[in-house]
Design goal:
The protein is mainly α. It is built from 5 helices and no strands. The longest helix is centred in the last third of the chain and has 25 residues.
């Protein structure tokens, strides 16, 4: 089935980045856990996952486990690794921004933001 498609490393990164975003948005339990995290933690989690996805694509292609068009494995392929990573991040964040939120996730995000704001106010009051 997939032999019909000619994937590039960037196209694989785009697909996997978008799918990762959708999983974290809609998988029951995972979406609630993720929504409760601060924005900084969410960004770090997604960036870490995109690095893992990029390294996986890179490693599988270098090991000839998957066939990827226009892929060169070698010492000078750092720029290609960065390009794959950027593709994954763009797809991940773009998908996150345009996909509709489930009500329960929106409620958790709102509650989390309120708790964070209260903590900021408390910290500011204590520092005076």
């Amino acid at each position: 089935m997939f032999n019909e498609f000619n994937f590039t490393s960037e196209s694989l990164a785009l697909i996997l980045g978008a799918v990762t975003s959708l999983i974290f948005s809609y998988a029951p339990g995972l979406n609630a856990w993720f929504a409760a995290k601060t924005d900084e933690v969410k960004r770090l989690i997604m960036l870490g996952l995109m690095v893992v996805i990029t390294a996986s694509i890179y490693g599988l292609a270098c090991g000839n486990i998957i066939s990827v068009n226009e892929f060169v494995c070698g010492q000078k392929s750092l720029l290609q690794f960065i390009s794959i990573l950027i593709s994954a991040v763009i797809a991940n964040q773009g998908t996150y921004k345009i996909s509709p939120q489930i009500r329960s996730v929106a409620a958790i995000k709102l509650e989390s933001a309120i708790v964070q704001d209260k903590q900021l106010i408390k910290d500011a009051a204590e520092s005076k």
